[in-house]
């Protein structure tokens, strides 16, 4: 049984006990049995070999922010990264951003925490930092440290990127079970960065669209489909080594590369499409999420199998086939996207879609070929539009209190 | 102890048992004791004398939508209200929007539910409808049914309203503990309304900023303050009769009036203000939320009390004093607002603030005088800007399956 079904809190956040039978949407009446809730309030460790927020079981809420660095002084940037790291180590453990906090400091000073998360638990907050290609220009002496894998993405057919909500020198992904906790963290990092960085763009998301652990159920995107069944998961040790973590002896060893894409969905058009066409486009059954021609969500798709009409169950251009590792030189991604609704678009429609995020060892051989295949052939393109793009080198984890984000990069 | 502290789910949503000691933000380690979770998955009744979503203990997530009616046919509008009511009765009980659902209908037809809430529980979803002044123009023959209390709001000093995100013929407030459930409901109402209504604007919110029940703790706004301590609450029978529910024999009897205001906060400026100034502006202590000069949040403010310096503890223009019923002819409001972050503003700042909503018997004697006093004198105005405004007559509840939203209005 999916624990997510009980809470909308992310399956891994909740350990259910004796709560069978609660999973149907039509439940009325009986209050559920007692439940144990652990990860919801328990903090995620901040220090480690890798950054948290990547293989950490995907929390249900996102606040993603991209900053432009506005100082041109390398020392100020390094000092900011030091201050941010100290704040992140506190915030992720459910503490206030600074030592005196929102209400404990001298009355004549501005508080060193903004206060809206006072009383709220850690909510599994993770803060994950990444460095964009633009940071490696001539401002900070980093040009020769730009990793080859941080190559600019090519232009993909059909994309309509808006520069103002794309790119950025530094990104921070804040994920938590409570949006107020994620927002609080981003807002305090922006506050600390005043005069050194400026918010370029930011994105809120809800309803994680991927699982990153086998303990989590697969959630649904705003097209109503399960769409992350074959995601890389934290239990996949070998696959993570091969496809997720950067290698070599440079500053990125133990890090990974993040691609973000804001994918607007024309949900009004999708909603008028027949069930049969929707299922054919995805290559999955809508209710169970099973590959067409199979029975259950996790049954592997059989791309060769043909139905009674002699045609393949899964169409040659079905999304599940085009995106599958077997169609892309065994390229795997660790997806960690979120649904979004940004109000409406002024044209009578909701402004809604998927904020896609994927971590990988090398976008040149992973995201790029997969997305190129999708951009050229995926019939989903009739219903989606890529409007923002980001690419970031996410360094390895912070080892201890003497370490900080980007230390090896600036060493 | 606040149950909200455990989950960020809204205190009323969660009944905690034996979980003492979890309330601090610095908790690490021990998983909490068993917890009983009821309202999170239990549906809120749809039928009743009053609409749900008003005195219902405030859920933690909001999707608010304002529609323009695009048909000019009265019969089509009435039929839409009928269809919406039937869908709302289903959705609020955790069912799909239509009888065949997202994946159960004929393959050649578009599904009558969009599917992203399949497997999710009701999450205390409420759907609350309201009719704006513009619905009472000459399109639908309703001009002589416009209630006197639905008088256009005056222009308030300092407001900067954006017409495109203000007003609207019909509003729906969707509140739930899971944003995906609230978004799903609004999206399906928009889908059902295709060709008859068009989304004018919509707003997502998180972190309810008011309590509507004494069982709920007072949450914090994005200025870090508790700011709804003296709200009308569902337990206040006499006050609700006097200040909330419309009277008389017309179609609004048992209904109420909703004012919405999107209040942008310049949080970056606020965050550089001293703790003493922040507390003086609100008239409350930041950590406990106590009125200045008192000890605890629910201690009544003593506006006459003076400190050792001979000045009143609570300044003459403190927010708590200006907004208090004693300063406004005993005007009470049932506030039901939410925090929002809409990404960033393109100028290096988060686009964040409060989506204020208040229900009342007559805005002319309740919201208007309170807001006029605040607009003229509140020192908070230095840090906020009203950018959107809405006014809606919310009819009484739907009595049973033979009734529908607005039946008495169109009778």
Describe this structure in words.
Chain A has helices at 4-7, 74-91, 179-192, 237-243, 267-270, 275-282, 319-322, 367-377, 407-410, and strands spanning 15-16, 34-36, 61-69, 126-131, 170-176, 197-208, 256-265, 334-335, 338-344, 350-360, 384-394. Chain A is an alpha+beta fold and 411 residues long. In chain A, the strands form two sheets. In chain A, strands 3, 4, 5, 6, 7, 8, 9, 10 and 11 form a nine-stranded antiparallel β-sheet that branches. A two-stranded antiparallel ribbon of chain A has the order 1-2. In chain A, helix 2 (74-91) packs antiparallel against helix 3. The N and C termini of chain A lie far apart (49 Å). At the A-B interface, helix 1, strand 2, strand 3, helix 3 and strand 6 of A face helix 1, strand 2, strand 3, helix 3 and strand 6 of B. Strand 2 (34-36) of chain A pairs antiparallel with strand 2 (34-36) of chain B.
């Amino acid at each position: 049984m999916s624990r997510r079904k009980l809470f909308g809190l992310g399956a891994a956040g909740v350990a259910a006990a004796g709560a069978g039978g609660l999973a149907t949407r039509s439940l009325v009446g009986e209050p559920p049995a007692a439940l144990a809730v652990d990860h919801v309030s328990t903090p995620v460790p901040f220090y480690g070999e890798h950054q948290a927020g990547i293989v950490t079981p995907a929390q249900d809420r996102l606040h993603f922010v991209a900053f432009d660095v506005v100082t041109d002084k390398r020392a100020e940037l390094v000092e900011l990264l030091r201050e941010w790291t100290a704040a992140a180590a506190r915030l992720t453990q459910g503490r206030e951003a600074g030592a005196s906090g929102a209400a404990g400091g001298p009355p004549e000073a501005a508080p060193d925490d903004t206060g809206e998360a006072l009383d709220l638990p850690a909510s599994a907050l993770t803060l994950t930092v990444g460095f964009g290609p633009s940071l490696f220009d001539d401002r900070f002496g980093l040009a020769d440290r730009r990793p080859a894998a941080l190559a600019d993405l090519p232009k993909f057919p059909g994309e309509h990127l808006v520069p103002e909500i794309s790119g950025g020198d530094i990104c921070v992904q804040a994920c938590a079970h409570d949006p107020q906790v994620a927002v609080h963290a981003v807002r305090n990092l922006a506050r600390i960065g005043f005069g050194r960085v400026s918010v370029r763009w930011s994105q809120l998301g809800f309803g994680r669209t991927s699982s990153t652990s086998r303990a989590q159920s697969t959630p649904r995107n705003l097209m109503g489909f399960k769409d992350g069944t074959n995601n890389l998961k934290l239990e996949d040790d070998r696959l993570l080594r091969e496809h997720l973590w950067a290698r070599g002896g440079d500053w990125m060893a133990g890090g990974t590369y993040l691609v973000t894409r804001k994918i607007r969905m024309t949900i009004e058009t999708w909603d008028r499409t027949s069930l049969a066409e929707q299922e054919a486009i995805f290559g999955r059954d809508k209710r169970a999420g099973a590959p067409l021609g199979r029975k259950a969500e996790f049954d592997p798709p059989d791309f060769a199998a043909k139905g009674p009409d002699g045609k393949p169950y899964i169409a040659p251009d079905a999304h599940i086939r085009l995106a599958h590792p077997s169609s892309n030189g065994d390229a795997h991604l660790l997806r960690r996207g979120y649904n979004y609704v940004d109000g409406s678009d002024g044209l009578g429609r909701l402004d809604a879609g998927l904020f896609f995020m994927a971590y990988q060892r090398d976008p040149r051989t992973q995201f790029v070929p997969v997305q190129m295949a999708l951009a050229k052939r995926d019939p989903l393109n009739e219903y989606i539009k890529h409007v923002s793009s980001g690419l970031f080198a996410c360094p390895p984890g912070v080892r201890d209190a003497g370490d900080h984000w980007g230390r090896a990069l600036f060493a």
